[in-house]
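Two records follow; treat each independently.
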Amino acid sequence: MNQHLINQRISQANILYFRSQVFNQTEWMGVKAAKCPMDMWVYQELMVRLKTDLLIETGTWLGGSALFFAHIFDLMGQGRVITVDIEKQPDLPQHERIEYLHGSSLDDGIIQHMQAACDQARSVLVILDSDHRKAHKLAELKRYAPMVSPGSYLIAEDSCFDYYPAWPEFGAGPARAVREFMQSNTEFEIDRQQERHMLTFAPIGFLRKK
């Protein structure tokens, strides 16, 4: 099978998976986590390999992914999660390793709080999963990039919207933001090896800091 046909099949599979909306039925320990399970597997691999001790997440929603990360940190015996969302949801899962922030991921106060936490951490991983419009995602990429520790990752979720595209009617989104960010950035490289399970919500979205 030639590479063009392989890429076509991968795109079709990802579009089918996303459009099925099955991620809305995906849970971690009884809490909804609207993620691609293949990405979650890769995240825990990165956390262990990098010895992550701070994971920053924008876009909490119901807290399922934050709880997943906290449980991985439990198994690792270290680490904490700081997660922010503009909407405050009731009954978020409580865990001693999770800190919930309420507000825009781009608010100056939120950014300052995140940066202060990064200053006390050795290995920082950042996952951007809030507003997926191009302008917002690009602003996040620029503001959160300095927080990522060398060798770790800045991950732009839901680039599948406008990459395959899995959601063409959405318009310009994370994939366009990543491409523009990378045009003027020399600190990061796109690591497509993290897409090796073929199903991913973050095509070209795993950005490794050199």
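The next record belongs to a different protein.
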Amino acid sequence: MIVVRVIGYIFLVLAVAAAGYEAWQAVANGGWKMVALGELWFKLDAQSLSVSQAGIQRYVAPWLWEPVITTILLWPGWAVFGVPGLLLVWTGRRRRRAGGGHRR
């Protein structure tokens, strides 16, 4: 379960970074604007976004890119990473035994 928690914490770090970028943009531009995951990805590496689109449409399934992935890319970056991160950390948490001891 440690691997699940580590992946969850990585997602949470990405969510905090996305939220920090959004806050930084709000201060720099004088107003808050949601930053979508697709916009973040485009600013980080536009070529990989284009290659991913072409690869998924050509080799996986054309329908997967247009309604599914484009919808996710329009969501806020902090939410796309934050929600799964919280779920992974929560599911990977250590559970206490009924007798009060820790599992080993």
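Discussion point: The chain has two domains: 1-33+78-95, 36-75. How would you locate this feature using only the token line?
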